[in-house]
């Protein structure tokens, strides 16, 4: 890539995982720690790391996408795709299970039960609107259901659900505001990134994205939210899609100790640091609300640290074809003739972009311990 020395911007989505052996608390074990928090509902905003079926219901285009058919969903739903961008369950599914709640239904499933929460996340969604991104020469090819659109869906849902009593109805609900914003950077990097001169252009999006997430947190507080987790972005330089696009041209010294492109990962840190600052400002402004940072980046790092000793395939996609990382953007998972590996439980990456069910499960194992203390569920 030839851009060493410049900080860079964050990414896309995916977070890998970590075993509770490496969890931040010495008391963490395999039990569902979050059940002690006693949340009775969960509400999710976000993108493909969390979408359990909204995009495929949103338009005819969604239903024609690769993750609306096999091999997506093969591990969880017996070869029937659900719209999840993985071979099976996602992080939000495991979070719901850890809380002792049913899996969240996508809000676009009009026949679904929303007694215990709802999922508003849309695969491909961005924090910023398509119009704002266009002004920065970035195009969203997947959906117009940005964070503002999802917030409007949420507002409409609560208008029907709460019956003018949201403060009481939502007092024990958990709100997940993200992960969101990774796609804003992802589309920019993949569409026009060309060495260091474009890094600064992409970096200009960060304050806009963080401000939009901050606005979303304030909106859900106005709806009645009292407990909010705001996840950060993931280390994009570890994903097969980026290792394929940029890593093959990189020099040895442009990789970190995990064989990830350090320049790309530094942008994730750049975004995450500013997001943490925004969360601290929000917590000061709303002392009666619990607002915590979800450290998805650290969870991914923990998996990579353990991966070599557990036999995990860290950087190669399970479902894909060709090249050092089993990823080809012209023949991606779900395309005709592209097959999945036989043992996705040994892979971090499912399709070069998203994680496997097993990686998501291990990620939530680590996050449970982290969030258990941050949310003060032990009190």
Automatic annotation (TrEMBL):
It comes from the Eukaryota. It comes from Coffea arabica (Arabian coffee). Belongs to the 'GDSL' lipolytic enzyme family. Residues 1-30 form the signal peptide. It holds the Pfam family Lipase_GDSL. The lineage of its organism: Eukaryota, Viridiplantae, Streptophyta, Embryophyta, Tracheophyta. Keywords: Glycoprotein, Hydrolase, Signal. This is GDSL esterase/lipase At5g03980-like isoform X1. InterPro entries: GDSL, SGNH_hydro_sf, SGNH_plant_lipase-like. SUPFAM superfamilies: SGNH hydrolase (SSF52266).
């Amino acid at each position: 890539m030839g851009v060493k020395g410049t900080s860079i911007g964050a990414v896309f989505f995916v977070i890998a995982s970590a075993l509770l052996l490496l969890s931040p608390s010495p008391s963490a074990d395999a039990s569902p720690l979050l059940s002690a928090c006693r949340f009775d509902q969960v509400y999710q905003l976000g993108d493909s790391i969390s979408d359990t079926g909204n995009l495929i219901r949103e338009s005819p285009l969604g239903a024609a996408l690769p993750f609306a058919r096999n091999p997506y969903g093969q591990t969880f739903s017996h070869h029937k795709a659900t719209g999840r961008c993985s071979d099976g369950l996602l992080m939000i599914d495991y979070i719901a299970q850890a809380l002792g709640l049913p899996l969240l239904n996508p809000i676009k499933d009009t026949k679904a039960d929303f007694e215990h929460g709802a999922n508003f996340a849309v695969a491909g969604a961005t924090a910023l609107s398509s119009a704002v991104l266009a002004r920065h020469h970035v195009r969203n090819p997947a959906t117009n259901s940005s964070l503002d659109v999802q917030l409007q869906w949420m507002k409409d849902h609560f208008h029907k659900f709460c019956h003018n009593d949201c403060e009481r109805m939502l007092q024990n609900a958990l709100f997940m505001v993200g992960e969101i914003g990774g796609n804003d950077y992802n589309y920019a990097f993949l569409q026009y990134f060309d060495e260091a001169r474009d890094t600064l252009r992409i970096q200009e999006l960060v304050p806009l994205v963080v401000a939009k997430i901050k606005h979303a947190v304030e909106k859900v507080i106005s709806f009645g939210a009292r407990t909010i987790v705001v996840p950060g972005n993931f280390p994009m330089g570890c994903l097969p899609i980026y290792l394929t696009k940029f890593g093959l041209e990189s020099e040895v010294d442009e990789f970190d100790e995990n064989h990830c492109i350090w320049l790309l990962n530094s942008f994730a840190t750049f975004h995450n640091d500013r997001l943490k600052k925004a969360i601290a400002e929000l917590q000061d402004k709303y002392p009666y609300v619990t607002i915590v940072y979800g450290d998805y980046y650290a969870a991914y790092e923990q998996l990579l640290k353990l991966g070599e000793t557990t036999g995990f395939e860290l950087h190669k996609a399970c479902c894909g074809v060709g090249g050092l990382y089993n990823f080809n953007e012209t023949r991606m998972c779900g395309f005709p003739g592209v097959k999945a590996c036989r043992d996705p439980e040994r892979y971090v990456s499912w399709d070069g972009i998203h994680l496997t069910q097993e990686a998501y499960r291990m990620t939530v194992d680590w996050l449970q311990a982290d969030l258990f203390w941050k949310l003060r569920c032990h009190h």
